[in-house]
Amino acid sequence: MDKISITGGRKLRGTVQTSGSKNAVLPLLFSTLLAEGEHVFHNVPALKDVETSCLLLKHFGCDVQRDGTVLRIKSGKLKSSKAPYGLVRQMRAGILSLGPLLASHGIAEVSLPGGCAIGTRAVDLHLRGFKQMGVHINLVKGIIVARAQGNLKGARILLDYPTVGGTENLMMAACLAEGSTFIENAAREPEIVDLAEYLNKMGACIQGAGTDLIRITPKKSLLPQEHKVIPDRIEAGTLLLAGAITKGNVCISSCVPHHLDSLLFKLEEAGFFIKVSGSSVELSSPERFSGVNIITAPYPGFPTDLQAQFMALMTQVAQGVGSVKETIFENRFMHVQELVRLGADIQLDAHTALVRGGRVLQGAPVTATDLRASACLILAGLAARGETVIHRVYHLDRGYECLENKLSSLGANIKRFK
Ligand code: UD1
Predict the structure, then answer these.
(1) Whole-structure pTM value
(2) 116 noted as active-site residue
(3) What is the number of the ligand 1 atom nearest to the C-alpha of 305?
(4) Which of 109, 127, 250, 259 suits 94 as a labelling partner, its CA being 20 to 30 A distant?
């Protein structure tokens, strides 16, 4: 298993490009099950989760070819309508095959993903929505067995919580239903807008994506198209925070700056200088920065996927306290004890972490527990004295494209070894 070693203390400087978005590309890949023929995606990041999704698509009978950042998916006759546990266990987004399979074939069997390191991660809202659309759902030996008699029925669905995956799954299912579907209290993430744009290119009629009310007027069939995946706002945010934690000056190019607003406001509040021009964000560091408070929230609030990395930054506040409140996942503080091993002063009280600055972090061996926790520990390693070795970095490869190469191009002393 790979490990990453970082010798901290270098200020990061320079420009680095953002890759395509993991969370946008995964639903796009599953949307190919809605229309037979060749779909072409550009700006596809080389990530383990993309590989796993492609394996799942091949298992369903699709032909998948990659050429650099271009992915061609030929969707045709379905070979199987079952998403096996072996693949869904590796990547929870496999649940996103449920909506497209039900819409196009009326039948799907997808292993229930189960919990993960950051929380239980239920899919009850996805299933409740499908039931409203006329789908019969049974749980048999850990597998969601879903069947529709005839076409799915359009419905008015009011989500208890603006679930990202649930909104995407139901939006895809509704494209080929009978009658319009309204999703209320829908998630508003940019990845949902990107998916709706692709579905509309295919001929669907989706209005309101990016707001909390989405209306889907169904069509008889859809046609495959070509699409460029949006930049990864979480990767861009992580790279900005890497610049900030080393008190460096970095420019993140090829991103969509307004997708990062909640982070940029917090960085400015802490004292960093932010300059946005076109698709680039430049960060320069002050002599000292202050502690600020963040509360994670659905978009456009502060993203839970940047919470751990922001906490790493707060450990480097010269004086004062920063508080980090997690409201989306019940257990997304696994990185706290690892940061404490590096010398951070963090007190956990239920869903809030109080981070006291003024501590010098000392490099040590640490273990990554999930994707964003890995990024948090890398950031902490960049600021720590001496060597930090991060174990279990396979989590990182699920969601970051060559993060160590990007950081090293900015001047970090970081290497991967077996
Ligand atoms: C997506 C992102 C993930 C991000 C998360 C929140 C992808 C592939 N992943 O995950 O990186 O951290 O959004 O921004 O896009 N919930 C229920 N019932 C449901 C669905 C969700 O209770 O049916 C709960 C979950 O347990 C969780 C919260 O709602 O506590 C948010 O989940 P959701 O928005 O669905 O996140 P994902 O789509 O899994």
Answers:
(1) 0.97
(2) yes
(3) 12
(4) 259
Q: Residue holding tokens 């508003």?
A: 188
User: How many secondary structure helices (H) and strands (E) does the chain include?
Assistant: 14, 24
Query: Residue 291 Cα, ligand 1 centroid: separation in angstroms?
Result: 28
Active-site residue, selected from the candidate residues 54, 116, 255, 402: 116
Q: Are strands 3-7 and 413-417 parallel, antiparallel or unpaired?
A: antiparallel
For residue 55, the CA-to-ligand 1 centroid distance in Å is 22
- Closest residue to atom 5 of ligand 1, CA basis: 164
CA 336, 293, 297, 238 torsion-angle sign: negative
Q: What's the CA gap between 277 and 257, in Å, rounded?
A: 8
SS3 342: coil
Residue with tokens 């006329």, as numbered in its chain = 134
Q: What is the pLDDT of residues 121-175, one digit of tens each?
A: 789 999 999 999 999 999 998 899 999 988 999 999 999 999 999 999 999 999 9
Query: Which atom of ligand 1 has the smallest separation from the CA of 328?
Result: 30
CA distance 49 to 229: 15
Q: How many residues does the chain have?
A: 418
Nearest atom of ligand 1 to the alpha carbon of 161: 29
- Compute the distance between CA of residue 99 and CA of residue 96 in angstroms, rounded to an integer: 6
Query: If pLDDT is split at 50, 70 and 90, which confidence band does 319 have?
Result: confident
Do the Cβ atoms of 21 and 233 come closer than 8 Å? yes
